[in-house]
Amino acid sequence: MPELSIIIPCLNEEHYIGRLLDCLGKQTFRDFQIIVVDSHSTDGTATAVRRRMRKDRRISLLRSPRKGVSDARNAGAWKAQAERLLFMDADVTIGSDFLKKAMGELEERGLQVSGCCLVPDSRKLFDRLGHHLLNGWFQAMQYVWPHMVGQCIFSTRAIHRKLKGFDSTILFAEDNDYVNRASTLARFRILRSVRVISSTRRFESENSIVLGMKYALCPFYRLIFGEIRTNIFNYRMDIPKRKKQ
Hints:
The protein is α/β, with parallel strands linked by helices. It has helices at 17-25, 45-53, 69-78, 98-109, 125-141, 157-163, 174-182, 201-205, 208-225, and strands spanning 4-10, 32-38, 59-63, 84-87, 113-120, 153-156, 188-198. The protein has 9 helices and 7 strands. Helix 1 (17-25) packs parallel to helix 2.
C-alpha cells in the first residue's frame, strides 16, 4: 500500500491538471498514489489525465457521482489506499521536494491534520499582499479556529470517515469547515517547511477588490450565521482559463 493518497478534484481543468501531475511526477518522495476525480468536465481534462496515466501507473481517474468539489473529494477519499490523505486543487504547483519535506514534518510533529501557506504565481503587489494577509490569518488562527483552503489539506482516512467527509451542502468555504471539524479530532498546525504555489487566475477573471472582500467577510459570516449553504457570496466554482499548460 502507498504511504500517501493524493486526491485532486477537477472541473474543466485541462489547462492546469497536467502541470500539477507533472510536478507530482518529479517528487523526490515516491510512495504515493494520485486520484484525479473528474466532476463532469466538458473539456479535455480526462484526456490530459489519461495521457499521463500511460506514463505513471500511480495515477488513476474517477468520475464523481455528482458535480461539486466536496462530492469529488469524498469520492476520491473513499478510493484511497493510504491512511494519509492529501487534498489538492488542480491549479497549484509544488517544488520537487514538497512531499518529502511535508511527510517528514508531519511525522516529526505528530500531525494528522495540517496545511501550508500559499505563494501566488504572480508578481503583482495586490496578489502578494493578499497572500501575505491570508498566510498571517492561517498562522494566527491555527491555535483557536483553524482555517485552510483546498489547495493543500492533509488528513487521514480515519478522520475523514469520522467526519463523513466534506459537507456537500456547503457552497463556499467547505474546506474551512472540514478543517474546523477535523481539528476537534486531532491537533491542527500549519507546516513550516513547505508552501504551495497558488494560482491567481480567479483574481484575474473577477473584480479583485470584490473577490478580496468575499474572502475577508467569509469567516465573519460563518462565525455569526453558520456555514454558507446559499449562494449569497455569488462564488463560482468554475474558473475561466488563463492559458494552456
